[in-house]
Specification:
The structure is a homodimer of 159-residue chains. Chain A is of the alpha+beta class and 159 residues long. Chain A contains four helices and nine strands. In chain A, strands 1, 2, 3, 4, 5, 6, 7, 8 and 9 form a nine-stranded mixed β-sheet that branches. Chains A and B meet through β2, β3, β6, β7 and β8 of A and β2, β3, β6, β7 and β8 of B.
């Protein structure tokens, strides 16, 4: 996009950083885009999400799911975080498109933290086929509504 | 996944087909996953969505957006359709992960149809940088809640 005369996407300022961090802090689910290992094409599914201590999103997903197999084949993925409420225009509701590397996290060590934010996962947290991943950010795009687009760096969101 | 002993994903039955078609019919936005042409990695953003006459989803998006540039480079993409309400467990809310080819659609011919379902787009429908795309389905995965996963074919959703 280097041939574009005006880049409509600005670097993040303090407000944008606070908005991005707030979207992650409040999210309990997200859309996860991976590369389908069978077809090498995108596939997007819904996953649970909680913020880690450092602001990096965490998820608990089953190794039986297609997205986990895809992350094993290619750990680079993308999350859409920030869900519209029941009212208003969904396209003006703030959301964060994050590109990230999915890394296996310390499931036992983070159990209390995860369950404090997502109590229902108590039912299956210890199942052997569930793994905890952290989405180490590579970069992202924050859309705060019409005309409010910001480029997000890892430093903007990791505490 | 051919080495898996039990495939938890079933072929669609009439109820699954009706659910998938209903999710598309009701959706006015979705998550769109594309391949970022700069990095060849997934990127997921939010777009507007309406059902076409034949049940195939349509969107009106700006050529200035990063997802449109990505679709020009690689038209194979994925949509996550079906948004949780404000109550209940988001992971038990039905959703459709659709893999599709984005094709340029007849913007002028579909204007009345699109605006009847998405009146706010009247403000920018005729802007020269906006294009109408249809997402011709390649296949998909319908998740109707815990233990209710169905494989979706194009015939299951196209009228």
């Amino acid at each position: 996009m280097s041939d574009k005369k005006i880049d409509p996407i600005r670097p993040a300022d303090d407000d944008a950083r606070a908005l991005a961090r707030g979207l992650i802090a409040q999210a309990r689910f997200a859309a996860l885009a991976v590369i389908d290992p069978d077809t090498q094409t995108p596939m997007v599914t819904r996953i649970a999400l909680v913020p880690g201590h450092d602001g990096v999103p965490l998820t608990l997903i089953s190794t039986l799911s297609s997205h986990t197999a895809a992350l094993d084949a290619c750990a680079t993925c993308s999350l859409l975080i920030g869900e519209p409420g029941p009212k208003g225009d969904p396209l003006t509701h703030p959301r964060l498109s994050l590109q990230a590397t999915a890394e296996v996290a310390d499931k036992a060590g983070l159990k209390a933290h995860y369950l404090s934010l997502y109590p229902k996962a108590q039912l299956y947290y210890d199942f052997g086929d569930f793994r905890l991943f952290r989405f180490s950010p590579l970069g992202g795009l924050l859309n705060g509504g019409f005309g409010k687009a910001f480029r997000i760096t890892p430093d903007d969101i990791v505490a």
